[in-house]
Write a structure and sequence with these properties.
By secondary structure, this protein is α/β, with parallel strands linked by helices. It has 2 domains: about 100 residues, no CATH class; about 170 residues, Nucleotidyltransferase, domain 5 (2-Layer Sandwich). It has 14 helices and 6 strands. The longest helix has about 30 residues. The termini are far apart.
Length: about 350
């Protein structure tokens, strides 16, 4: 059997279109070139020789990371899927003859973005693009946090005590290979009587469009309320702030008031004293709005392959979570655009 020619591939692409390839809109509607000024110089360091393959296009590699985040697959799996799936190749503008980034190249590129602190600028660049296209943060904001689990560490109690005290456990410096595999930044936390290990993704979502406007990453042990200041979006046109009762305290209420925000934070009962019926009704009304932020985490969990990440250290976790949030915003933008087109057509 001969190799597929141009018309064979064209017919396959046509078939993919009819079946509803979700990557077509992602490729066409996202302004990928706006990211080039940020990633253009990511490979800029003197090459020791001209031997070997030149670095792949940085925007193409960025698209690979978005694709990887959309399906939450490993570096090895994204390499395999790009080689195996025509839809992935078309999204990346790769022909059958073009070189495909291997797993090591994907890891190295992501590490370069991490080392150079480029994920937050990339996230903010897309936020600016959203505003340029009419999706300004409006009608107030909703804040919440979600646990992002990572592989559990098998440490002794003595080692865990040293880690919590920000010390290197005894003997680890003598075993550098083992030490590199140890995550000393992730922490345990308890939620709904279940223990979780990893990090937290703190986000602010605008009520109008349900887009993530700000995010902060911490270890899982950090209380949600501690991150209200850095995660709050100061550019939302609405003053209202919704949050669950974990963010309720007299200090936070005063802080919001001083910042001219209107608190819609859930009321919290006191020990031995249940909430009044009036406050319960207030909470019920606020829950209808606050639920929108749960939809964000639900999408990441159910439509993006889950939130579990295989990384070591908070810097790499921050990169993965930033990509997760950015990918969510891209997919949310596509949905908003489809709705707009539907309204215009009607």
């Amino acid at each position: 059997m001969g190799q597929p020619g141009f018309f064979d591939l064209d017919q396959r692409h046509t078939s993919l279109n009819k079946m509803g390839d979700p990557l077509i809109m992602l490729k066409k509607k996202i302004p990928w070139e706006v990211f080039r000024p940020i990633v253009a110089n990511v490979h800029d360091k003197p090459r020791k020789s001209n031997a070997g393959r030149k670095p792949l296009d940085p925007v193409l590699m960025f698209k690979v990371l978005i694709l990887q985040s959309l399906y939450n697959v490993s570096d090895e799996q994204i390499e395999y899927q790009i080689r195996d799936r025509l839809s992935f190749m078309r999204f990346l503008d790769l022909s059958l003859e073009d070189p495909v980034p291997d797993a090591r190249t994907v890891w190295s590129y992501r590490q370069l973005l991490t080392d150079q602190g480029l994920l937050e600028p990339l996230f903010e660049q897309f936020n600016r693009s959203l505003i340029d296209q009419g999706y300004q943060a409006k009608k107030g904001q909703i804040i919440d946090a979600s646990i992002v689990p990572v592989p559990k560490q098998r440490n002794t109690r003595t080692e865990n005590a040293a880690i919590k005290a920000d010390h290197t456990p005894e003997g680890w410096d003598d075993k550098p290979a083992m030490k590199r595999q140890k995550d000393t930044n992730a922490r345990w936390t308890k939620k709904h009587n279940q223990r979780h290990y990893g990090y937290k993704n703190h986000i602010s979502v605008d009520r109008k469009h349900k887009l993530i406007r700000h995010f902060v990453v911490s270890d899982a042990a950090v209380h949600d309320s501690q991150m209200i200041d850095p995660v709050l979006d100061q550019h939302n046109t609405g003053a209202e702030v919704w949050a669950d009762s974990a963010y309720r305290s007299e200090e936070i209420e005063q802080w919001l008031k001083a910042g001219r925000y209107k608190s819609q934070v859930h009321h919290k009962g006191k020990r031995g004293k249940a909430l009044s019926e009036a406050k319960q009704k207030v909470n019920q009304a606020r829950s209808k709005v606050r639920a929108r932020v749960e939809h964000v985490f639900g999408y990441q969990e159910n439509s993006m392959g889950g939130k579990f990440i295989r990384t070591i250290g908070i810097n790499r976790a921050r990169t993965k979570i930033a990509l997760m949030n950015l990918t969510y915003n891209m997919m949310r933008f596509l949905l908003l655009e489809r709705r707009t087109i539907g309204i215009i057509a009607a």
